[in-house]
Amino acid sequence: MDADLVASLPERYRGCPSFSFGDSPELANELAALVISGRKIATVNTLDAPDCPKLNELWIVLDGAGRPVCVIETIELIPRRFDEVDEAFAFDEREGDRSLAFWRDAHESYFRRIGVFSPDMPLLCERFRLVEVFAPMDVDA
Fold it and tell me: Exposure of 115 by Cβ count < 10 A (0-12 exposed, 13-18 middle, 19+ buried)?
């Protein structure tokens, strides 16, 4: 994150790691808006992702332009294979129609785009809570 952006954060968050959701600015904006709205309370990572969260860790969520928009805290981490993700978790990700079918479709597409998809790939299923919002964002839906 840019030094000016770090300096603009409240001091208590300046040492926190940061990330943006997805693999495009548009997806980062869409998913960050869902978090800020309170709808999105879960996400997944591959186990070997460089930015895997730890329990009770605070993370700064960036929008598609790399600006900090909110802080989340990891409250649950459960390892599961892709094909073991259940309807309750898919619903908590709150994307699309919130169904398991949509979740599988969207996440298979994402993991294929980044070159790591396998039906039995190990994932880290994370639930989080919204701690603080820095910049409001509109949610389409």
Answer: exposed
How remote is the C-alpha of 59 from its chain's centroid? 10
Question: Domains of the chain (ranges plus CATH)?
Answer: 3-128 (3.10.400.10)
Residues 6 or more apart whose CB falls under 8 angstroms from that of 7 comprise 14
Long-range contacts of 86-92 (CB under 8 A, 24+ apart): 89/42, 89/125, 92/40, 92/41, 92/42, 92/127
What gap in Å lies between CA 42 and CA 85, rounded to an integer? 12
Q: How far apart are CA 103 and CA 90, in angstroms?
A: 6
pLDDT recorded at residue 141: 45
C-alpha–C-alpha distance, residues 95 and 74, integer Å: 19
Query: What is this structure's pTM?
Result: 0.90
* In contact, 139 and 34? CB cutoff 8 Å: yes
d(CA 132, CA 137): 13
What digits encode the pLDDT tens for the residues 123-134? 999 999 999 999
Rg (CA), the chain: 15
Among 102, 80, 76, which Cα is nearest to 90's? 102
